[in-house]
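#struct-pred

JT: dropping the chains for the assembly here, can someone run the whole complex?
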Amino acid sequence: MQMTADVHLDVSQVLEEALREVLNMMFGLPVEGPGAGGADLADSLTGSIGLTGPEFQGLLQIRCSMDAARGLAAAMLGGEEMLGDDASLIQDSLGELANMLGGAVKQRIDQTGVRIEISLPSVVQGELQAQSDEEMERTELDFLVDGHPVGTTLVHHSAR
Amino acid sequence: MSLDVLLIDDSSVMRKVLTRALRQGGLDIGEIAEAGDGMEAMEVLDQGKGIDVILCDWNMPNMNGLDFVTQARAKGYEIPIVMVTTESGDERIQQATEAGANGFIHKPFTPDRLAEALSEHVCTV
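RK: done, full complex below.
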């Protein structure tokens, strides 16, 4: 792996700004926090997206309860009535949120001169633990979004 | 004059989000056609539907946004195309511009930003 540039990022700040940009600015949802990670999210959904480049590799996740995911999807699509009985819309909406969150993080990383690509998003039921080792930095931030706990995690490795 | 829009995005959720944002943005939006990739979008154009502006994702299966722009221009379609994507690097913007895209909106966006970009490109092309 070629490491040619320093990546100086305040990852917590990047993650918070990205989440606020997507959920508050784009969808008008009130966002409180962040607090420290580790919220217990029973019956949860996790949306993940990879961030990959020669100088930066990471995995970004957003997770929340099924109820919260339904609320987020309704806010994105314009109301509960838009969801109907289609449960896949809730998962797809969380995947799109992960995608936009990844885009917002990527934009900030791009500004440091580091090029990364983002993967297609994926969504799983339950909490998918992003693996990390001693060479990786793990940042977890929890928020209250429209009153619902929403957790974010960015596990990354960058050239230094 | 109301604007008839073609949305090209493989995510049905994103197409719904875009539709909502278009309706909220304050422009007079007419019909909104949808396509799940560049191939479907080309079929819509080839059917002769009256489209005033196209909003196009970048990463899609079958035919991605860049290939769609290239082919649409090669076929002589001059409809303004605004890329709506998470891609944000200067190289990507240059690629899209050279292929014939008229504008670039980064996801996430606001309804106002979307309306602003549409106004700019529909009026200037």
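JT: nice. The longest strand of chain A covers residues 148-158. The CA atoms of residues 52 and 116 of chain A lie 5 Å apart.
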